[in-house]
Amino acid sequence: MDHSNDLRSQPSSGEITEGVNRREFLRLTVATTVATSALPQVWAAEMKGDVPYRKLGRTGEKVSAIGVGGFHIGNPPEDEGIRIIRTAIDRGINFMDNSWDYHDGDSEVRMGKALKNGYREKAFLMTKIDGRTKTSAAKQIDESLKRLQTDHVDLMQFHEIIRMEDPDRIFAEGGALEAMLEAKKAGKVRYIGFTGHKDPTIHLRMLEIAKKHQFLFDAVQMPLNVMDAHFRSFQKQVLPILLVEEVGVLGMKPLASGLILKSKTVTPVECLHYAMSLQTSTVITGMDKMEILEQALEAARTFKPMTETEMTALLHRTSEAASNGQYELFKTETRFDATAHNPQWLG
């Protein structure tokens, strides 16, 4: 997708569009204020280069407030992808995202090559698996480690929790959690999380099923952006729970691969600053060009938590464009659901 993310002049905030439900908008503003209230376990306590670092929930691990998205690393030529990863680490970004299925494993292969020569020790490495059974999950864990050329990852996540039955399969007898716990015991995995992009109610069910099994995730990944605040909002429904339970918050799709920019309501850096202001541990963003990496580094360097007034103005500006999810197609269409098109991955 075209990333045409060059910094452009800031759109005027304007007035609330006619037809916006003001009572609902006030409720959203209140929810945003709660989500952005100063929680010391999340806000940056230090900088590395120009990049703020934050704690990953209750783990105590410190991760960069901006993370390198693994899917986009598979888009450019391999040497360029490796260059982006190493430059990001050299400039202070340590959070590396990936997945067993990105580009048929090539994103992990590239990451493994990039993390040679001392870079692995500087990175907080995360990847994801799709397997829902113990057998399929165990196989994918080992394949990911081989591609990444490492004996362990810092965070392993259950990928694409996008169906209501996914939690049941993972926590069932002979389910994927058994493989994940065995991998953790063997030292292959340090922390465990899950991801999803479809609907906040599915995230809530995953958390509910986990609690019934007396299991608490270390991290949860979900879309957090200026459009999400208005439509099937993970920010409103899931984020407050994670903050209270001190689960690491991994924001993703801050620009929806550039799609949000097509609304012409917000700039790239505003998108990143908004997501960083939501008490995220890190905001994972796609970087398939050096100029996109530089844009993310600029957002990190200039970041200051947005005030309530600033966030309200930004929400006013994006409310109409966001109302039907047209800039968050991963919520409304299946083209982004890799496991739906490859059910054999689930096991």
Itemize the secondary structure elements and their pairings.
Elements: H1 22-36, E1 46-48, E2 51-55, E3 62-64, E4 66-68, H2 70-73, H3 78-90, E5 95-96, H4 106-114, E6 124-129, H5 134-148, E7 153-158, H6 166-171, H7 176-185, E8 189-195, H8 200-212, E9 219-223, H9 234-237, H10 239-244, E10 248-252, H11 268-276, E11 282-285, H12 290-301, H13 308-322, H14 329-332, H15 338-341
Parallel strand pairs: 4-5, 4-11, 5-6, 6-7, 7-8, 8-9, 9-10, 10-11
Antiparallel strand pairs: 1-2, 2-3
Helix pairs in contact: 1-13, 3-4, 5-7, 11-12
Q: How would you describe this structure to a colleague?
A:
The chain is of the alpha/beta class and about 350 residues long. Helices cover about 40% and strands about 15% of the residues. It contains 15 helices and eleven strands. The strands form two sheets. Strands 4-5-6-7-8-9-10-11 form an eight-stranded parallel β-barrel, surrounded by four helices. A three-stranded antiparallel β-sheet has the order 1-2-3. The two termini are about 30 Å apart.
Give the overall shape, derived from the CA principal axes. globular
Sheet with the most strands: spatial strand order: 4-5-6-7-8-9-10-11
* Separation of the first and last Cα atoms: 30 Å
Question: Helix-strand pattern, N to C?
Answer: HEEEEHHEHEHEHHEHEHHEHEHHHH
Work out the strand percent.
5-15%
Radius of gyration: 19 Å
Helicity, as a percent range: 40-55%
> How is the main sheet built?
8 strands, parallel, barrel
**Helix/strand/pairing class, anyone?**
alpha/beta
Task: Round the mean pLDDT to the nearest integer and report it.
Answer: 89
Low-confidence stretches: 1-41
Number of strands: 11
Helix count from the secondary structure assignment:
15
